[in-house]
Design goal:
InterPro entries: Aldolase_class_II_sugar_metab, Aldolase_II/adducin_N, Aldolase_II/adducin_N_sf. This protein is of the alpha+beta class. Helices cover 42% and strands 17% of the residues. The structure holds zinc ion.
Length: 217
């Protein structure tokens, strides 16, 4: 087996593992959400369309060229493939993308409100989690909206009236950001239910981002 076949196989297995983890962590239900990872410079692996996460096997996981051509995999790629591809194209630093409808973060997506940093762990995403303009799911336009909201540095955005998208150096990192965004959304929601949450200033968020970078190295 060639080196590229070995790395393809490992990445496809990782997609299966994190898909099951989405269910275990209550970040999605059924076949909702999707996730992808770069395999090489010009290819990504992405979760297949319409298969329950428990049933996805590595050979089901499509490997797709960045122009959208399917190279491997027994099942069609996720219908949100264009959104994933748009993020990889715009952000060469991104190695993994996770999209969920996790309930607390999606609550803010439906309100059209960014999630502010009322908890320090939001620093995993940026100084706040922005919201995109509304676009229909599974279109190239929702990918453009996500890219616009992410800009050059932020690693998470809410997709208006839809859900969450996270993008980071690896699938593992993007997954961690998805967990942190959901946790911070829940805390912010709860804090607002009983009072007026305090939001950390931008200088502190910059400091936290530096600490997280140092910790990651
Ligand atoms: Zn979705």
């Amino acid at each position: 087996m060639s080196e590229s076949e070995t790395s393809d196989r490992d990445v496809r297995r990782t997609i299966c593992e994190y898909g099951r983890q989405l269910l275990a962590d209550d970040l999605t239900t059924g076949t909702g959400g999707n996730l992808s990872a770069r395999v090489g410079e010009d290819r990504i692996a992405i979760s297949p369309s319409g298969v329950p996460y428990e049933d996805i096997e590595p050979t089901d996981v499509p490997v797709v060229r960045t122009d959208g051509t399917v190279l491997e995999g027994d099942i069609e790629p996720s219908s949100e493939l264009p959104m994933h591809l748009a993020v990889y194209e715009a952000r060469p630093d991104v190695g993994g993308v996770v999209h969920t409808h996790s309930p607390y973060a999606t609550t803010f997506a439906s309100l059209g409100e960014p999630i502010p940093a009322s908890h320090y762990l939001l620093a995993f995403a940026g100084s706040e989690v922005p919201v995109t303009r509304y676009e229909t799911h599974a279109t190239p336009e929702i990918g453009e909206a996500a890219v616009d909201a992410l800009g050059e540095e932020v690693s998470a955005t809410l997709l208006r009236n839809h859900g969450v998208l996270t993008a980071d150096a690896s699938l593992e990192d993007a997954y961690t950001v998805a967990q942190m965004v959901e946790f911070c959304a829940r805390i912010h929601h709860q804090a607002r239910a009983v009072g007026d949450p305090e939001v950390l200033p931008d200088e502190e968020m910059d400091r936290l981002a530096e600490k997280l970078d140092a910790y990651g190295q």
